[in-house]
UniProtKB/TrEMBL annotation:
One GO cellular component term: Golgi membrane
Keyword vocabulary terms for this entry: Membrane, Transmembrane, Transmembrane helix
Domain of life from the UniProt record: Eukaryota
One BP annotation, GO: xylan biosynthetic process
UniProt cross-references to Pfam families, sorted A to Z: IRX15_IRX15L_GXM (PF21729)
Protein name: Polysaccharide biosynthesis domain-containing protein
Length: 262
């Protein structure tokens, strides 16, 4: 009798162990594996500083157009609105002339000056969202005409303020407009830079003016309004090249207004 009971108990224990193993297998296989390193939460900040947005640089063909224009004028007076590392080559190309950068980003100012570049801050830019309002203001106000005096004692809201006096006295051969960023409604827009460059160009000799990011509405509007379609000499990608004849006595920027905002 006892041997039969022992066999029964033994079989019962084996069955229990099999059930436990089966349950354990099913439990562990249903749990996903934990990665060795969890991804950061969306709210967590990067450990090594804040990522800066990728800079919108000139394409190789756009950069070649700028270089070609400068090469035809060297040694020349070159004024660049906005500093980018790829512009170092332009300053080197014009090493026998004068190259000046205007920049609103303090970090870029420090970087450029550390490389021995001649750089000045320019600020007080209107936000990009005011572009249409300021364009209408300029059309209504005679003080926003092309006369050079509008920059030294500006009564036009578009005129850049606080620039060194030497910038007004220099006759600029080439001007490149690639700053401030103008990459959003609350960002500083390029309205003042394009307007100021247009007034400077008409106050001196023949000037080549290049505007980058003309695929954007503000750059396109203001280029047509103040640099003018009839002065467009060439283009490449998002870069427009205007040639402005100076010493004009006209009280208008363009012979024919071409802005679509009329």
């Amino acid at each position: 009798m006892w041997p039969k009971k022992l066999i029964f108990v033994f079989l019962l224990v084996l069955s229990s162990l099999s059930v436990v193993r089966l349950f354990k297998f099913l439990w562990t296989s249903s749990i996903p594996a934990i990665p060795e390193r969890l991804p950061p939460r969306a709210s967590e900040k990067p450990r090594h500083g804040v990522d800066r947005p990728r800079e919108d640089v000139l394409s190789p063909k756009e950069h070649q157009l700028v270089s070609n224009v400068i090469a035809r004028r060297i040694p020349c007076n070159l004024l660049i609105f906005g500093y980018k590392p790829q512009f170092l080559g332009l300053a080197t190309l014009n090493s026998q002339g004068t190259t000046v950068f205007l920049e609103d980003d303090p970090e870029k100012l420090r970087s450029g000056r550390s490389k021995g570049l001649r750089m000045y801050p320019f600020s007080n830019h209107e936000k990009a969202r005011r572009a249409y309002e300021l364009l209408q203001h300029a059309r209504r106000r005679p003080a926003c005409g092309p006369g050079a005096g509008t920059l030294r004692a500006p009564r036009c809201e578009l005129a850049l303020r606080g620039l060194p006096e030497a910038l007004y006295e220099s006759g600029w051969d080439v001007m490149v407009i690639d700053g401030p960023s103008g990459d959003g409604p609350e960002a500083p827009g390029r309205m003042g830079a394009i307007y100021t460059a247009a007034v400077m160009a008409r106050g001196g000799r023949s000037t080549d003016v290049l505007v980058h990011n003309t695929d954007r509405t503000i750059e396109k509007w203001y280029s047509w309004e103040f640099l003018c379609h009839e002065n467009l000499a060439s283009s490449k990608g998002k870069l427009w090249h205007f040639r402005i004849e100076g010493n004009s006595s006209s009280d208008r920027f363009c012979e024919t207004a071409a802005s679509p905002t009329q």
